[in-house]
Amino acid sequence: MRRPVVGIIGNQHLINDTYEVHAGGSMNSDAVANVSDCLPLLIPADPRFVSVEELLEVCDGFLLTGGRPNVHPEEYGEAPTPAHGDFDRCRDAITLPLVRKCTERGQPFFGVCRGFQEVAVAFGSTLHPEIRDLPGRDNHRMPPDGTLEEKFALRHTVTFSAGGVFHRLLGAREVMTNTLHGQGICHPGERVVVEGYAPDGTPEALHISDAPGFTLSVQWHPEWNAANDPVSRPLFTAFGDAVRAWAEERRATPMLRSA
Q: What pTM does this model have?
């Protein structure tokens, strides 16, 4: 029996400043294939090429990856400023409705970094354009220099709500994570349950309340060293289990394919 398919949301890039490509980090595919035990499928997140309806049909679950462009602030009712950075409106047009539809259907998704912010915005959250500029906050951005190992090194703790989804899944209330982001949640939406915080109060882990499926999302990058990291591995394993359960139910109940 084939592995269930996880659509990995790609990002737009220019090679040599001229050649447009859709790309995804190989560590995302590695985590999906070798920890979640699913088939990774890179998605060009652009409504010119794909529709949400097609993606829901083709894929069993979705990995909402990190990416340098940010969710456009108009998506949460604010005007863009230079502090908001670069945007990818094509990705916004795919991922935000995809998150809402997956939540409604119970179709699993796992949000990572920008993906965490997409899930938050899709359910009414607002974002700070630059966490490090807020009083009392730390610099959560990726170090500008060093090796990949140094950039993805564990840099701060995340503390989870006692008895919450993350606490139960990981078996610990406090874990160490990397941090490579500039923006973060300001005001969470009504259904956005923040269960994990960095020491400076930055939201780091969430899920959507009353959702029938897997909606866990994290602000850090668990795809790095996912097979060996004691925090990353159970997250991707649980995600894979949820995707398999969805795929098996969909095969057993064909009506789900058109729901």
A: 0.94
